[in-house]
Amino acid sequence: MAVLASSGHRALFVGGCVRDALLGRPVSDIDISTDAVPERVTQLAEAAGFRAVPTGIDHGTVTVVTRDRAFEITTFRRDIETDGRRAVVAYSRDIADDARRRDFTMNALYAEADGTVLDPLGSGLGDLDNGRILFIDDTEARIREDYLRILRFFRFYAWYGASDQGPDRDALSAISENLAGLESVSSERITHEIMRLLAAPNPAPALAAMAATGTLAKVLPGADPMAIAPLAYLEEANSVAPDSVRRLCALGSADAVTRLRLSRKEEKTLQLLRAGVESLDGPQTLGYKMGRKPATDALLLRAAMTESGVGQKDFAMAALGAEAKFPVKAADLMPEFRGPALGRKLAELEARWIESEFSLTRDALLKD
Predict the structure, then answer these.
(1) For the chain, which terminus, N or C, has the lower number of CB atoms within 10 Å?
(2) Are the C-beta atoms of 56 and 74 separated by less than 8 Å?
(3) Dihedrals φ, ψ of 277, to 5°?
């Protein structure tokens, strides 16, 4: 900020870092907006001993790395044209031009290095204070500039929307009329938005709004939006942090994730949770077979789906099972058993041990 300002350029914090700082929430990425063109940003950064990387040069963005931390610095700009995924931009020296090309009013907030907040469009601060998720100017035009904004709208409503008011009706209407545009959005981008939405404290109202507009069926076919509310209630009641994969499992069948591009780890966890939910095993056995966290997640999912109770005693039993160690080793059964017969005998003894709720000792198991 100092390097840019000392050379006569404007340097402003922008977007999410300003929004979250004003709300007292943790700030992760810090983005900077400037009237300096990318070539000038690169020149000044390198002269100051920083590393400049042209990560989004076509859109005016240079990533500057200082002390191993990266900052995206983007030139004030305005859109010339867009195909619903990528925009052609022109540089500007007017902060209002830059603000108008953003998605929501609460994201069109800027701050000087000294903390002075700027609201070029005049409505961002009020909308942020009141939990209003509003597109800037023409709602339909903003959506058609980038159809991913349909999903961003619901994510922002889940994280920042006021609980005592529903989502903006004009936005819901425009979204319903532009759902076909989601076909042009990559699975990776859709997945990123959905998983972030599901991580909100209570995404149930946002999912219900998605269902009402047809968005949910478009991106998560077969998903049941009503399944999240009881799960979120149980999570809060038991002081369990939200988990996107757990909540994705609650939404429904495997068809619900066909448009998502999950990591291998997420896919394996989802399969494990489904098996745990369908199993008849008790908490301790679940913990032994699945591990502590997956067992806890499965217990929460079961309780939410069956509208039954679950509590700390169940979680403690799952933790106990996760720590349990089967006391019989293969060597204990040799040479009497070998090959496939050895495997079958070990499985038989382990099943008896589990059925005894882990009470049978090694000696008791080997007696038979």
Answers:
(1) C
(2) yes
(3) -65, -40
Q: What is residue 163's predicted lDDT score, i.e. its pLDDT?
A: 77
Answer left, alpha or beta for residue 334, where phi above 0 means left and psi between -120 and 50 means alpha.
beta
Cβ atoms within 10 Å, residue 26 = 7
One-letter amino acid of 6? S
Q: Take residue 36 and report the two structure tokens written for it.
A: 């300096």
Phi, psi of 177 (to 5 degrees): -85, -10
- Inter-residue contact 22 to 117 (CB < 8 Å): yes
Which amino acid type is present at position 92? Answer: S
Cα distance between residue 98 and residue 86, in whole Å: 16
CB 285 within 8 A of CB 354: yes
**Rg (the chain; Cα; Å):** 27
Q: Is the peptide bond before 335 cis (omega within 30 degrees of 0)?
A: yes
CA 123 to chain centre: 27
Q: Return the number of other C-beta atoms located less than 10 Å from residue 12's C-beta.
A: 24
| Residue entry with tokens 């478009």 | 218
pTM above 0.85, yes or no: yes
Residue 110's φ and ψ, nearest 5 degrees, are -130, 160
Q: Are 203 and 157 in contact (CB under 8 A)?
A: no
Q: For residue 11, give the nearest of 98, 136, 140 by alpha carbon.
A: 98
| Nearest in space to 276 (alpha carbons), one of 260, 296, 257 | 296
- Kindly give the residue spans of alpha helices, DSSP state H, lying in the chain: 2-6, 16-23, 38-47, 95-100, 124-129, 139-145, 149-160, 169-177, 187-198, 204-213, 215-219, 228-237, 244-250, 264-278, 283-290, 292-306, 312-323, 330-333, 339-355, 362-367
Q: What is the mean pLDDT of residues 50-74?
A: 90
Cβ–Cβ under 8 Å, residues 95 and 111: no
